[in-house]
Amino acid sequence: MKNILGAFILLVVLLSTKTYSQELSGFAQFQLRYFPLGPLDDRQEGTGFSLAIQPEFYYDFGGSPHSLLFTFFARYDQHDKERTHYDIRELFWLYYSDNWEISVGFRKIFWGVTESQHLVDVINQTDFVENFNGEQKLGQPMINFIYIHDWGTLELFLLTGFRERTFPGEKGRFRFPILIDTENPIYESSSEYKHIDFAFRYVNYIGPFDFAISHFVGTSRAPRFTPIDSAGIEPYIQLNYDLMNQTGLEGQLTLGSWLWKFEGITRHTIGKRFYALTAGFEYTFSNISNTGLDVGVLGEWLYDDRDQFFFPPNPFKNHVFVGSRLAFNDVQSTEILAGVLVDYRGAGIYPSIEASRRVGESFIVNLEAIAFYNTEEGDLLHFFRRDNYLQLEINWYY
User: Fold this and answer.
1) CATH number of the domain where residue 167 is located
2) How far apart, in Å, are the Cα atoms of 327 and each of 59, 314, 336?
3) CA proximity to 212, closest of 264, 257, 160, 174
4) CB < 8 Å & 24+ apart, contacts of 216-219
5) Element (H or E) spanning 11, and its range?
6) Structural domain tally of the chain?
7) Whole-model pTM?
8) Domain around 15
9) Residue 159: its pLDDT value, please?
10) Is 99 in a helix, a strand, or coil?
11) What are 278-312's pLDDT values in tens digits?
């Protein structure tokens, strides 16, 4: 795995310094996935289990403004050898002062405010074998400088290596009928995975309005797919990582129980420019009938002006998301988020639900389900129409 050796060297050098305090935490996970429908390809497996660990080490160097965080992740999957993988999620040295900080190493950076998708979130690569929803990310090597002032917060990023996207293997679910060649990607940049990317983000607020403006220049985290069909070999998909530049805007307005949210981008790549946005609201009914139950109502509109021949495509071109978030505020921290994405042109319905509950002092049980209904041939999600699933996770935290 590229950059992993350098990360371990950094860890050894920093740990050679006497530490003032250290902390070990993390979790171990048992995961079960149930697929009620048979796959499109007979080589794909159905129901199966996996095991994962994610230890996290924190070191504070002698009470100084220096610290080190190391988060490692590994998973074993019963069926899919591509999902059996490991990654350094974070391994970075941090120095902080009164109004600025700098970090060097692997980090995970999140940008975004909306619920249904995160258009502006472009720093980290997606760990697609972990979850179809794209929320899980690979660690990104970087130098990150943050300056905090009365006029706002400025974040600068020098991204010193590219991470390729993970995809399910031959036996995995959530894959295309044609297998993807992840071993031989093609880069637009002659530097390939060594290309240096740049980004900045400005964050501020005006009264109840929080906003951020960002710009990214570098290799696109979303690959372009090129089908290859040559005589004598099985057809496959070639991955192409193109250069791009993207400008993003995030905004959130808080008015009492209302949250109004917006994410918008404009991106230029392979000689074309497109625009996309997600906008909506969340309204919370608090402490209903003095039970402690909070009920949030969510609604968002997803728009993308890419045509079907523009790759990488976005499956959510003109969709509406409606959902509800329930927080029981009990000692078990029970929460439920249920929603549905609907193509209001009548071409797709995608319901989903996530629920979590703490059991005892150290365990959290998560349930997740997603389904694909009424998809049309030609839509990207039509390839996953038989991948409805129910997922159970038991996490032990220490």
Assistant:
1) 2.40.160.10
2) 34, 31, 7
3) 264
4) 216/122, 216/123, 216/244, 216/245, 216/246, 216/248, 217/244, 217/245, 218/159, 218/162, 218/243, 218/244, 219/162, 219/187, 219/188, 219/189, 219/195, 219/243, 219/244
5) helix 4-15
6) 1
7) 0.90
8) 4-397
9) 98
10) coil
11) 999 999 999 999 999 999 999 999 999 887 655 66
